[in-house]
Design goal:
Length: about 60
């Protein structure tokens, strides 16, 4: 498993990280109370990033 994005603190109690294997890209998000992880195939990851970027532009 390759570390793509080491654990990064993005808030007072929120951390995010990304890793990859041959077939999947893993995203994890953790806070003080809860954590979640998702596994994406490459094409799913690309669509996920596109959707997040689209939402980000609407927020700005």
């Amino acid at each position: 498993m390759e570390e793509i994005l080491d654990e990064v603190k993005i808030g007072e109690k929120l951390t995010v990280g990304v890793n990859a294997s041959n077939e999947e890209i893993g995203l994890f998000i953790a806070s003080e109370d809860v954590s979640a992880s998702c596994a994406f195939r490459k094409e799913e990851w690309d669509k996920f990033v596109e959707a997040v970027n689209k939402a980000d532009k609407k927020i700005e």
